[in-house]
Amino acid sequence: MWSIVRRFAVIALGVVASWLLVVLVLNLTVYSPARSVQLYLSALEEGRFGEAAGIAGMSSVPAILPEPSGSLSEPEVVGTRTLASGKVVVLAEYVLQGDTESSYFTLEPAGDVLGLFNTWTFSTKPTAALVYSVIGDERIDVNNVRLSTRALGVPPRSTVLVPGVYEASLNTPWVAAPTTLARVTQTEAEYPLRLRVAPTNELTDTATTAIERYLEGCVAQEILQPIECPFGITIADRVVGVPAWTVLDYPVVSVTLGADRESWDVLAIGGVVEVTVSVQSLFDGSISEYSEIVSFLVEGSLQGTLIDGPVLTL
Description:
By secondary structure, the protein is an alpha+beta fold.
């Protein structure tokens, strides 16, 4: 009789031990902080950003996503360390645009399931901040999303998921800036994205055309001092004919950023005009043809590129 009882007791203890072993194994694998990090990185790798944000404990998906897609691959947890506080630091490695990178993630216990299985949450959100600086405009394109720096606080910034590659540029008909990128690998860090925009050929051509039309209006005035124009002459003798102006060389136009970093200074140099007119000498009354070549420059300001409506003021 006692042997049967002992046999059942041994079987019961074996079942309990096996169950405890299963619980232990599950807590070390499926319900481990390393597993949470692996699931988060896999979601990023496959472009399931909503799921990744949920695993990270975020209430919404960031506006700027870690594109271009496919830049993250082969994520793998390579180590963990338990802190005295009970938090766990997880080290993960992955390939980011062809290079091996690593990130640390910190997680903490978030209760248990059925009193047996541990659950974990990111105590430090797996996010970083992109901090923007744009000289010459207030717009910036980050991973194909157009942002206004004025609407993002001081300094302008965005919260983004870690890890990821974030590319910034600006391309408009009037101004543009080359692409710069941030390889974001560390949580709670700040990554600067700086742009300095430059005028496009279209903006310079538009200014050149406007100045040439302005000069055509100046040379059409049959007076010695064309009104609101950058050239004119004075003659001591009496003018008896009609002055005729001709543009010999149109000035070369350059466009540079103004001191306010929002408008553009326009400078056109190397302009040459010629004027011819009949004059009568005050000394002897003789009439002769008078001509003079005049060099000039044009200065102005371009405004409105921020709203894609440039206006030239001379």
